[in-house]
């Protein structure tokens, strides 16, 4: 009976090949570090932009709350941009983790530790036909869950606090809606859109968590051999 690709024993690396893999690992760590820095840069843009909007909105009791609404467009733009960068970062991070788990860990372990007989072929295929390991929606969900959920919650609370407190403490819900109106758009519509805006972020974070949890269970059961 012919031996399948997955059942074949892993290739024994020579000293020169082990050195090449070590240099490859260093290169992947460097690339993942660079892209991690780019992720932090985008987050900093979002934080600074929100800070400027907060400063303008709360500069005086009569100041408009509109900057906090408009900054939401920029925050969504930064979120999509950061998710795109995260997809690149995840490729380099996954390769590093793959080599750590299947190459360095068995080498350093005091015993017969080897988790994946097919790890070399999987890594080679990823270099030969590179592709993203996560979808854009998954990337957006992970960035919302880790960072942007809190930024959007601060934005929403700051907007609500502005229309409730300034220029004087609101005495009724109708007064709050009146302050929230923007031109021809009624305040009730603006508040409803704001609530949906925050709920969408919370839902995305929950969906992302459940997606990653199910994926981890699926991979932990040994039914999948992939990176990312």
Provide key terms for this protein:
about 230 residues; mainly alpha; about 75% helix; about 0% strand; elongated
Briefly, what is this?
It contains six helices and no strands.
Produce the secondary structure layout.
Elements: H1 15-57, H2 66-108, H3 119-128, H4 136-165, H5 173-180, H6 187-220
Helix pairs in contact: 1-2, 1-4, 2-4, 4-6, 5-6
- The structural domain count equals 1
The averaged pLDDT comes out at 85
Query: What would the principal axes of the Cα set say about the shape?
Result: elongated
**Uncertain spans, ≥5 residues at pLDDT below 50?**
1-7
Secondary structural class? mainly alpha
Largest sheet at a glance? none
User: How far apart are the termini?
Assistant: 34 Å
Number of strands: 0
Order of helices and strands: HHHHHH
**Total helical segments:** 6
Helix amount, in percent? over 70%
Portion in strands: under 5%
Radius of gyration: 25 Å
Fold and architecture overview:
This protein is an all-alpha fold. It has one domain. Helix content is 74%, strand content 0%. It is built from 6 helices and no strands. It has helices spanning 15-57, 66-108, 119-128, 136-165, 173-180, 187-220. Helix 1 runs parallel beside helix 4 (136-165), helix 2 runs antiparallel to helix 4 (136-165) and helix 4 (136-165) packs antiparallel against helix 6. The longest helix is centred in the N-terminal third of the chain and has 43 residues, at 15-57. It is elongated and about 75 Å long. It starts with 14 loop residues before the first helix and ends in an 8-residue tail after the last helix. Residues 1-7 have low confidence and may be disordered.
